[in-house]
């Protein structure tokens, strides 16, 4: 039978707001999680009315309401009409699926995203026409958008003219437009054997070809690149040199210079896809900073701020290249004025920098969690980004492991999703940003570690 406590006594679990421990409404959620975990609150316990709790904690009612709303979303509590709000019964763990297969930035613990959105949209609506915000935008960005792009790219590329920057709706559309602008039907683009799967997909859909270039521990090998350029008469080179997807390796500056010089000498353009540079510690300068006349640089906000900001900035060696790119972009894609304007507003008012700092801090915490939990697994490569490349024990194969993990409510990405050619490495990519909380990620990593430690059963075999 459920116990019903005096509402004022129950509020003992909700005390001790800490400065710097995140928004107060999220601290209320943490109080609930802690009290449920240590038994102070049990399934069926009734919580104080929101107004009573607000009075007890000396905070406004809106904060409590937001806290309860988030707690209900996390299935910690449930409303029972006029009876009040109660601690929810625990859900069966196996029914909850945790997606560790998609690379997105983690939600920062100390940033109130709702407040940022509210303030950002308020500022936008004060300055812009609502009808205009809801239309397509084809020009590659307004003056304000391009200025925002130049400001955002300054840590990577130094001071650049806004005329060299274009805003577009995400990195995938930018890459597709660059393929169209730089190559013709049947042309070859070179990339490493392991890489972002969206690039070969777009290349093949547009009637071009991808050829893989051999790599070593530093990335694409210069000697193999020269041979591949000559053999295939390649028109472009695709690189993701910082915290590479999926291996999380960062190409050193010396190798970047070697590749840049080969590209310049052979007049082969470089598409530098660099979504993770701002998450890396002491990242080398991008190739676009070393040889700007040869490189098309792509930087998306989706991987370092939020996937909801479908905005990427692209820089060009010259004005003619920009015209070709925009013409290609218009053939299949239009910019969402609303998201681009929000990204511009946040960059100019400092909200983007605040959000980035939160994502950087949260990424480091989650990487330490992954290091502590997965350090016993063979070949774990851990870094400061948002994903981990993990070599599997010899008794596991990527597809087998992914199938077994799915049965445990976990989704991870096999090496076969990223590899070109035969004999993919015996590894998986683990993304750390999708878990809604650190506790959820910690439980998922521990479950994965336990699975890795045991040999597969006959039921885990995958026939391909």
Automatic annotation (TrEMBL):
Domain HTH gntR-type: 22-90
Keywords linked to the UniProt accession: Aminotransferase, DNA-binding, Pyridoxal phosphate, Transcription, Transcription regulation, Transferase
GO molecular function: DNA binding; DNA-binding transcription factor activity; pyridoxal phosphate binding; transaminase activity
SMART domains: HTH_GNTR
UniProt xrefs under Pfam families: Aminotran_1_2, GntR
Family under the similarity heading: In the C-terminal section; belongs to the class-I pyridoxal-phosphate-dependent aminotransferase family.
Record has Transcription as a keyword: yes
Name of the protein in question: PLP-dependent aminotransferase family protein
């Amino acid at each position: 039978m459920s116990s019903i406590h005096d509402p004022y006594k129950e509020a003992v679990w909700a005390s001790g707001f800490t400065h710097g421990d995140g928004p107060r409404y999220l601290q209320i959620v943490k109080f609930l999680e802690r009290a449920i975990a240590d038994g102070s609150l049990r399934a069926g316990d009734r919580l104080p009315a929101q107004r009573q709790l607000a009075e007890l904690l000396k905070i406004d009612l809106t904060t409590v309401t937001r806290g309860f709303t988030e707690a209900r979303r996390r299935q910690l509590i449930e409303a029972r009409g006029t009876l009040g709000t109660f601690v929810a019964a625990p859900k069966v763990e196996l029914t909850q699926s945790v997606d560790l297969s998609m690379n997105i930035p983690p939600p920062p613990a100390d940033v109130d995203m709702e407040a940022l959105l509210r303030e950002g949209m308020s500022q936008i609506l004060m300055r812009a026409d609502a009808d205009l915000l809801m239309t397509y935008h084809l020009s590659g960005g307004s003056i304000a958008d391009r200025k925002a792009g130049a400001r955002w790219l300054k840590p990577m590329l130094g001071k650049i003219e806004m005329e060299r920057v274009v805003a577009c709706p995400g990195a995938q559309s930018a890459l597709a437009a660059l393929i169209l602008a730089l190559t013709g039907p049947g042309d070859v683009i070179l990339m490493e054997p392991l890489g972002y799967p969206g690039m070969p997909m777009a290349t093949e859909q547009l009637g071009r070809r991808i050829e893989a270039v051999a790599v070593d521990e530093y990335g694409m090998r210069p000697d193999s690149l020269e041979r591949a350029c000559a053999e295939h008469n390649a028109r472009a080179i695709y690189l993701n040199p910082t915290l590479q997807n999926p291996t999380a390796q960062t190409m050193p500056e010396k190798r970047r210079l070697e590749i840049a010089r080969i590209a310049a000498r052979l007049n082969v353009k470089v598409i530098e896809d660099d979504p993770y540079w701002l998450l890396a510690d002491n990242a080398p300068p991008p190739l676009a900073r070393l040889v700007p006349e040869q490189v098309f640089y792509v930087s998306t906000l989706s991987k370092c701020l939020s996937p909801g900001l479908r905005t990427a900035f692209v820089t060009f060696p010259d004005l003619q290249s920009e015209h070709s790119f925009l013409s290609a972009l218009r053939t299949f894609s239009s910019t969402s004025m609303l998201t681009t304007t929000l990204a511009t507003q946040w960059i100019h008012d400092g909200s983007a920098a605040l959000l980035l700092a939160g994502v950087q801090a949260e990424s480091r915490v989650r990487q330490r969690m992954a290091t502590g939990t997965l350090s016993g697994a063979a070949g774990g490569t851990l870094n400061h980004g948002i994903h981990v490349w993990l070599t599997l024990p010899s008794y596991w194969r990527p597809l087998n492991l992914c199938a077994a993990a799915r049965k445990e409510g976990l989704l991870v990405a096999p090496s076969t999703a990223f590899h070109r050619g035969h004999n993919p490495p015996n590894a998986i990519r683990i993304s750390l940003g999708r878990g809604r909380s650190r506790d959820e990620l910690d439980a998922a990593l521990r479950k994965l570690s336990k699975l890795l430690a045991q040999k597969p059963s006959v039921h885990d075999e995958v026939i391909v």
